[in-house]
Design a protein that fits this description.
Oligomer: single chain
Number of strands: 2
Strand content: 5-15%
Number of helices: 7
Length: about 160
């Protein structure tokens, strides 16, 4: 990994490479997905090589919980953590957060779709057809998340 702690300090070989945005979240989530059962933060820290500060691991776990991709349950005086989503779920959360931060959703989505390669555009079309066939499940997912009145594709319900 190259970094000796969660602050970006370098190791014996010189300055460490800086982590990409969200890279540590992905690593923590992958560790939880590899866990045989709900695990404490200490287990996550050790699974990642033990070089991160314990408080850094707790911070990342707490952020992932706020995003809904991990859950925790009381285990004695601390918590045991479990992955509730995979890396795709985390990426989807990030995409929704970016979209929710924009005022012109239609313009953002239009720009996004028009920049996709043809095979990705066709994949999106297939996925929309599939979700239209399973509409009630989609509607309840929106209600559970509290998404308001617009679906992900911008249509009103």
């Amino acid at each position: 990994m190259g970094q000796q702690d969660g602050r970006g300090g370098g190791g014996p070989g010189g300055p460490a490479r800086r982590r990409g945005q969200g890279e540590l979240e992905v690593q923590v989530l992958a560790a939880l997905r590899a866990a045989p059962e709900p695990v404490p933060a200490r287990w996550v820290r050790e699974h990642l090589g033990g070089t991160l500060a314990y408080t850094t691991v707790i911070t990342i776990l707490t952020r992932l919980q706020a995003k809904g991709v991990v859950t925790r349950q009381r285990a004695g005086r601390s918590f045991a953590w479990t992955a509730a989503a995979d890396e795709a779920g985390l990426a989807a959360h990030r995409m929704r957060r970016v979209l929710d931060g924009e005022t012109d959703r239609q313009a953002v989505l239009t720009s996004f779709v028009s920049s996709l390669p043809p095979q990705d555009e066709e994949l999106l079309r297939r996925l929309f057809r599939q979700t239209q066939e399973t509409g009630p499940a989609r509607e309840s997912a929106h209600a559970e998340r509290g998404d308001g009145d617009a679906c992900a594709d911008g249509r009103e319900r």
